[in-house]
């Protein structure tokens, strides 16, 4: 496996509360890696640590052979893009204005807005299908449209690595599929390394090249969806009794939750 990001013995705490415990994880280049696990297991913290938004108490994150702690903020922002959960921007901002913010790492006082920036902006908006919304105000967009615009902003950074934290949060079923189909298309078309946090196991199994289960700040299991989506592993990681079948359309594992472990024990 050609590794793009290496997380090595990473530990991280919020005050006295330990969140990640000597966690190690290779993230393959040019693939979609999905992080999943119970609430509070450290998924979002790990994603933010990969983007150096949290300072670890131990271990390191390497981008190729480079420890990300040695990169300045602008250099890192040219390498790793992050879309956080529930991002916000003023309703009266236009779509183009928001997407332009993705070019910030490439600009300086000596290098203002350039032809390269304009071309990157156009590619990002065309690739996400929001070019026709260019002059619309954010407050006038639907939830699905707005999420595409945020993804366009991240793509405008033209980073090799794209991290997305719950990108389908608060979207209806149609827009969830629309958003994740877009992510998969962009991964295929541009070869970007994508790291996703998802709660829905069936969406994770459908879109992941590599699936990582976290529990209590550690890696509980890592592998292909076919390797991880077993009834025994789901019971161990999520405390849920389930039936796992093969999706007759996509050929991926499909989890049918039955009951929690606690309700089974009570019965």
From TrEMBL:
Which Gene3D superfamilies does UniProt cross-reference here? P-loop containing nucleotide triphosphate hydrolases (3.40.50.300)
Show where the ABC transporter domain sits: 5-241
Keyword Lyase included in the entry's annotation: no
Q: Name one Pfam family in it.
A: ABC_tran
**How does the protein's chain sit in the membrane according to the entry?**
Peripheral membrane protein
Provide the GO MF annotations for this entry.
Answer: ATP binding
User: Looking at the record's lineage, which domain of life comes first?
Assistant: Bacteria
- Report the SUPFAM superfamilies cross-referenced here: P-loop containing nucleoside triphosphate hydrolases (SSF52540)
Q: Which SMART domains has this protein been placed in?
A: AAA
Family of the protein in this entry: Belongs to the ABC transporter superfamily.
What protein am I looking at?
ABC transporter ATP-binding protein
